[in-house]
User: Fold this.
Amino acid sequence: MEHDIQRAQSLADKAERVLVITGAGISAESGVPTFRTAGGLWNNIDPAKVATPEAFAADPAFVWRWYDERRVQLKEVQPNPAHHALARLEAAKGDQFFLLTQNVDDLHERAGSRRLAHIHGKIWEVRCTREKTVREDFRAPLPEIPPRCPHCGALERPNVVWFGEMIDQDAAQATELFLSRCEVNLILVIGTESSFGYILDWAMRTRGKPDSLIEINPGDTALSPYVDLHLKGKAGEILPRIVPER
Ligand code: NAD
Assistant:
Protein backbone atom coordinates (compact mmCIF):
# COMPACT_ATOMS: atom_id res chain seq x y z
CA MET A 1 0.00 0.00 0.00
CA GLU A 2 2.78 2.41 0.98
CA HIS A 3 4.46 1.89 -2.39
CA ASP A 4 1.14 2.37 -4.23
CA ILE A 5 0.45 5.63 -2.42
CA GLN A 6 3.88 6.94 -3.38
CA ARG A 7 3.27 5.90 -6.97
CA ALA A 8 -0.09 7.69 -6.95
CA GLN A 9 1.51 10.79 -5.47
CA SER A 10 4.13 10.87 -8.19
CA LEU A 11 1.51 10.35 -10.93
CA ALA A 12 -0.69 13.14 -9.52
CA ASP A 13 2.31 15.41 -9.24
CA LYS A 14 3.45 14.82 -12.81
CA ALA A 15 0.08 14.77 -14.55
CA GLU A 16 -0.55 17.85 -16.65
CA ARG A 17 -4.30 17.42 -16.92
CA VAL A 18 -6.43 15.65 -14.30
CA LEU A 19 -10.08 14.61 -14.14
CA VAL A 20 -11.47 13.62 -10.74
CA ILE A 21 -14.77 11.79 -10.31
CA THR A 22 -16.29 11.55 -6.83
CA GLY A 23 -19.26 9.78 -5.28
CA ALA A 24 -20.98 9.47 -1.94
CA GLY A 25 -17.94 7.73 -0.35
CA ILE A 26 -15.88 10.92 -0.29
CA SER A 27 -18.41 12.52 2.05
CA ALA A 28 -18.77 9.43 4.27
CA GLU A 29 -15.99 10.51 6.64
CA SER A 30 -17.77 13.85 7.07
CA GLY A 31 -20.69 11.88 8.46
CA VAL A 32 -22.89 11.91 5.34
CA PRO A 33 -24.39 8.46 4.75
CA THR A 34 -23.80 6.82 1.36
CA PHE A 35 -26.66 5.27 -0.60
CA ARG A 36 -25.86 1.63 -0.99
CA THR A 37 -23.17 0.83 1.54
CA ALA A 38 -23.80 -0.50 5.07
CA GLY A 39 -25.67 2.09 7.10
CA GLY A 40 -26.51 3.89 3.87
CA LEU A 41 -29.53 6.07 3.29
CA TRP A 42 -31.38 3.48 1.27
CA ASN A 43 -31.24 0.85 4.02
CA ASN A 44 -34.15 2.38 5.90
CA ILE A 45 -36.26 3.59 3.03
CA ASP A 46 -37.26 2.42 -0.43
CA PRO A 47 -35.68 4.87 -2.94
CA ALA A 48 -38.82 4.64 -5.05
CA LYS A 49 -40.63 6.39 -2.18
CA VAL A 50 -38.49 9.51 -2.19
CA ALA A 51 -36.25 9.84 -5.23
CA THR A 52 -38.53 9.52 -8.24
CA PRO A 53 -40.82 11.97 -10.05
CA GLU A 54 -43.70 9.57 -9.36
CA ALA A 55 -43.10 9.70 -5.60
CA PHE A 56 -43.04 13.49 -5.72
CA ALA A 57 -46.25 13.66 -7.72
CA ALA A 58 -47.95 11.30 -5.26
CA ASP A 59 -46.83 12.99 -2.05
CA PRO A 60 -44.62 16.09 -2.37
CA ALA A 61 -44.71 16.82 1.37
CA PHE A 62 -43.40 13.33 2.21
CA VAL A 63 -40.54 13.65 -0.28
CA TRP A 64 -39.72 17.14 0.93
CA ARG A 65 -39.68 16.06 4.58
CA TRP A 66 -37.03 13.46 3.67
CA TYR A 67 -34.94 16.02 1.78
CA ASP A 68 -35.40 18.58 4.55
CA GLU A 69 -33.99 16.09 7.03
CA ARG A 70 -30.96 15.51 4.80
CA ARG A 71 -30.46 19.26 4.42
CA VAL A 72 -30.57 19.68 8.20
CA GLN A 73 -27.97 16.88 8.58
CA LEU A 74 -25.75 18.48 5.93
CA LYS A 75 -25.78 21.82 7.77
CA GLU A 76 -24.02 20.08 10.66
CA VAL A 77 -21.15 18.45 8.72
CA GLN A 78 -17.83 19.78 7.50
CA PRO A 79 -15.58 18.96 4.53
CA ASN A 80 -13.04 16.26 5.44
CA PRO A 81 -9.33 15.93 4.54
CA ALA A 82 -10.23 14.28 1.20
CA HIS A 83 -12.27 17.31 0.05
CA HIS A 84 -9.42 19.60 1.14
CA ALA A 85 -6.82 17.50 -0.70
CA LEU A 86 -8.80 17.83 -3.94
CA ALA A 87 -9.01 21.60 -3.47
CA ARG A 88 -5.19 21.62 -3.15
CA LEU A 89 -4.84 19.54 -6.31
CA GLU A 90 -7.03 22.05 -8.14
CA ALA A 91 -4.94 24.93 -6.81
CA ALA A 92 -1.83 23.20 -8.20
CA LYS A 93 -3.27 22.36 -11.63
CA GLY A 94 -5.53 25.37 -12.30
CA ASP A 95 -7.52 25.03 -15.54
CA GLN A 96 -5.94 21.64 -16.16
CA PHE A 97 -8.14 20.24 -13.39
CA PHE A 98 -11.80 19.29 -13.43
CA LEU A 99 -13.95 17.64 -10.79
CA LEU A 100 -17.14 15.79 -11.62
CA THR A 101 -19.15 14.88 -8.55
CA GLN A 102 -22.23 12.70 -8.23
CA ASN A 103 -22.83 14.22 -4.82
CA VAL A 104 -25.62 16.66 -4.18
CA ASP A 105 -23.92 18.11 -1.10
CA ASP A 106 -21.69 21.21 -1.25
CA LEU A 107 -18.69 19.86 0.68
CA HIS A 108 -16.34 20.21 -2.31
CA GLU A 109 -17.24 23.88 -2.69
CA ARG A 110 -16.89 24.45 1.03
CA ALA A 111 -13.38 22.97 0.88
CA GLY A 112 -12.48 25.42 -1.90
CA SER A 113 -13.13 23.51 -5.15
CA ARG A 114 -14.29 25.78 -7.98
CA ARG A 115 -13.78 23.90 -11.25
CA LEU A 116 -16.49 21.35 -10.65
CA ALA A 117 -19.85 20.13 -11.87
CA HIS A 118 -22.66 18.27 -10.12
CA ILE A 119 -23.96 15.59 -12.48
CA HIS A 120 -26.85 14.69 -10.15
CA GLY A 121 -27.82 18.22 -9.14
CA LYS A 122 -27.53 20.13 -5.87
CA ILE A 123 -29.51 19.68 -2.69
CA TRP A 124 -29.32 23.41 -1.83
CA GLU A 125 -31.15 24.36 -5.00
CA VAL A 126 -34.92 24.24 -5.51
CA ARG A 127 -36.71 24.32 -8.85
CA CYS A 128 -40.15 25.65 -9.70
CA THR A 129 -42.19 22.83 -11.22
CA ARG A 130 -44.07 25.31 -13.46
CA GLU A 131 -41.49 27.91 -14.54
CA LYS A 132 -38.45 25.59 -14.18
CA THR A 133 -36.54 28.46 -12.57
CA VAL A 134 -33.86 27.44 -10.08
CA ARG A 135 -32.99 29.30 -6.89
CA GLU A 136 -30.63 28.60 -4.01
CA ASP A 137 -32.19 28.08 -0.61
CA PHE A 138 -29.89 27.29 2.30
CA ARG A 139 -32.59 27.34 4.97
CA ALA A 140 -32.76 24.09 6.92
CA PRO A 141 -35.27 23.25 8.15
CA LEU A 142 -37.39 24.95 5.49
CA PRO A 143 -40.09 27.22 6.94
CA GLU A 144 -42.76 25.71 4.67
CA ILE A 145 -43.06 22.17 3.33
CA PRO A 146 -43.50 21.73 0.44
CA PRO A 147 -41.92 25.06 -0.60
CA ARG A 148 -43.67 27.18 -3.22
CA CYS A 149 -42.24 29.38 -5.96
CA PRO A 150 -41.97 32.99 -4.74
CA HIS A 151 -43.02 34.23 -8.23
CA CYS A 152 -45.88 32.00 -9.33
CA GLY A 153 -46.83 30.01 -6.23
CA ALA A 154 -46.36 26.62 -7.92
CA LEU A 155 -44.77 23.71 -6.08
CA GLU A 156 -40.99 23.65 -5.95
CA ARG A 157 -38.92 20.45 -6.00
CA PRO A 158 -35.34 19.66 -4.98
CA ASN A 159 -33.04 20.43 -7.94
CA VAL A 160 -31.56 16.93 -7.88
CA VAL A 161 -31.65 14.15 -10.45
CA TRP A 162 -34.10 11.43 -9.49
CA PHE A 163 -34.19 7.81 -10.65
CA GLY A 164 -35.32 7.70 -14.25
CA GLU A 165 -34.46 11.37 -14.96
CA MET A 166 -31.83 12.86 -17.25
CA ILE A 167 -28.48 13.78 -15.76
CA ASP A 168 -27.55 17.48 -15.57
CA GLN A 169 -26.79 18.41 -19.17
CA ASP A 170 -24.52 21.37 -18.35
CA ALA A 171 -22.41 19.15 -16.10
CA ALA A 172 -22.24 16.41 -18.75
CA GLN A 173 -21.20 18.95 -21.39
CA ALA A 174 -18.54 20.51 -19.16
CA THR A 175 -17.07 17.05 -18.52
CA GLU A 176 -17.06 16.16 -22.22
CA LEU A 177 -15.45 19.48 -23.04
CA PHE A 178 -12.71 18.95 -20.48
CA LEU A 179 -12.02 15.45 -21.78
CA SER A 180 -12.01 16.40 -25.45
CA ARG A 181 -10.20 19.75 -25.43
CA CYS A 182 -6.78 18.34 -24.50
CA GLU A 183 -5.39 14.97 -23.56
CA VAL A 184 -6.12 14.00 -19.94
CA ASN A 185 -3.19 12.21 -18.29
CA LEU A 186 -4.81 11.07 -15.08
CA ILE A 187 -8.31 10.14 -13.91
CA LEU A 188 -8.91 9.72 -10.19
CA VAL A 189 -12.16 8.00 -9.18
CA ILE A 190 -13.04 8.29 -5.51
CA GLY A 191 -15.80 6.84 -3.33
CA THR A 192 -18.21 5.66 -5.98
CA GLU A 193 -19.64 2.30 -6.98
CA SER A 194 -19.39 3.51 -10.62
CA SER A 195 -22.71 1.83 -11.16
CA PHE A 196 -23.93 4.29 -13.80
CA GLY A 197 -22.85 3.70 -17.40
CA TYR A 198 -21.92 7.33 -18.03
CA ILE A 199 -19.61 7.35 -14.98
CA LEU A 200 -17.85 4.19 -16.17
CA ASP A 201 -17.58 5.67 -19.65
CA TRP A 202 -15.95 8.91 -18.44
CA ALA A 203 -13.72 7.05 -15.98
CA MET A 204 -12.36 4.84 -18.74
CA ARG A 205 -11.54 7.60 -21.22
CA THR A 206 -7.78 7.18 -20.74
CA ARG A 207 -7.98 3.41 -21.08
CA GLY A 208 -4.94 1.96 -22.79
CA LYS A 209 -2.63 4.66 -21.46
CA PRO A 210 -0.49 3.18 -18.70
CA ASP A 211 -0.78 4.58 -15.18
CA SER A 212 -3.70 6.83 -16.04
CA LEU A 213 -6.60 5.50 -13.93
CA ILE A 214 -6.54 5.41 -10.13
CA GLU A 215 -9.40 4.36 -7.85
CA ILE A 216 -9.68 5.13 -4.14
CA ASN A 217 -12.29 2.95 -2.49
CA PRO A 218 -12.16 0.48 0.40
CA GLY A 219 -14.25 -1.96 -1.64
CA ASP A 220 -14.35 -3.39 -5.15
CA THR A 221 -16.58 -1.62 -7.67
CA ALA A 222 -17.71 -1.96 -11.27
CA LEU A 223 -14.62 0.05 -12.25
CA SER A 224 -12.05 -1.88 -10.20
CA PRO A 225 -11.18 -4.51 -12.87
CA TYR A 226 -10.05 -1.73 -15.25
CA VAL A 227 -7.96 0.53 -13.01
CA ASP A 228 -4.16 0.80 -13.04
CA LEU A 229 -4.05 1.34 -9.31
CA HIS A 230 -6.70 0.56 -6.71
CA LEU A 231 -5.93 2.18 -3.37
CA LYS A 232 -8.13 0.22 -1.00
CA GLY A 233 -8.88 2.51 1.90
CA LYS A 234 -10.64 5.62 3.06
CA ALA A 235 -10.39 8.71 0.91
CA GLY A 236 -9.83 10.96 3.94
CA GLU A 237 -6.75 8.97 4.88
CA ILE A 238 -5.30 8.31 1.42
CA LEU A 239 -5.91 11.51 -0.54
CA PRO A 240 -4.03 13.84 1.84
CA ARG A 241 -1.00 11.61 1.33
CA ILE A 242 -1.31 11.83 -2.45
CA VAL A 243 -1.73 15.61 -2.33
CA PRO A 244 0.12 16.65 0.82
CA GLU A 245 0.03 20.15 2.24
CA ARG A 246 3.19 21.93 1.13
P1 NAD B 1 -22.81 4.63 -3.36
O1 NAD B 1 -23.47 4.89 -2.06
O2 NAD B 1 -23.46 3.72 -4.31
O3 NAD B 1 -21.35 4.07 -3.08
C1 NAD B 1 -20.47 4.65 -2.17
C2 NAD B 1 -19.07 4.14 -2.45
O4 NAD B 1 -18.18 4.79 -1.57
C3 NAD B 1 -18.90 2.63 -2.21
O5 NAD B 1 -18.20 2.08 -3.31
C4 NAD B 1 -18.06 2.56 -0.95
O6 NAD B 1 -17.20 1.43 -0.93
C5 NAD B 1 -17.28 3.85 -1.03
N1 NAD B 1 -16.82 4.39 0.24
C6 NAD B 1 -17.42 4.32 1.45
N2 NAD B 1 -16.70 4.97 2.36
C7 NAD B 1 -15.61 5.47 1.73
C8 NAD B 1 -14.49 6.23 2.13
N3 NAD B 1 -14.33 6.65 3.38
N4 NAD B 1 -13.57 6.56 1.18
C9 NAD B 1 -13.70 6.16 -0.10
N5 NAD B 1 -14.75 5.43 -0.54
C10 NAD B 1 -15.68 5.10 0.35
O7 NAD B 1 -22.56 6.06 -3.99
P2 NAD B 1 -22.34 6.55 -5.48
O8 NAD B 1 -21.54 5.57 -6.25
O9 NAD B 1 -21.88 7.95 -5.37
O10 NAD B 1 -23.77 6.55 -6.20
C11 NAD B 1 -24.99 6.68 -5.59
C12 NAD B 1 -25.72 8.00 -5.75
O11 NAD B 1 -25.87 8.49 -4.44
C13 NAD B 1 -25.09 9.14 -6.47
O12 NAD B 1 -26.00 9.53 -7.41
C14 NAD B 1 -24.99 10.29 -5.46
O13 NAD B 1 -25.52 11.45 -6.05
C15 NAD B 1 -25.91 9.90 -4.41
N6 NAD B 1 -25.57 10.26 -3.02
C16 NAD B 1 -24.98 11.45 -2.74
C17 NAD B 1 -24.64 11.76 -1.44
C18 NAD B 1 -24.00 13.09 -1.15
O14 NAD B 1 -24.28 14.06 -1.82
N7 NAD B 1 -23.10 13.15 -0.16
C19 NAD B 1 -24.89 10.87 -0.41
C20 NAD B 1 -25.52 9.66 -0.73
C21 NAD B 1 -25.83 9.38 -2.05
Observations:
- DSSP finds ten helices and nine strands in the chain.
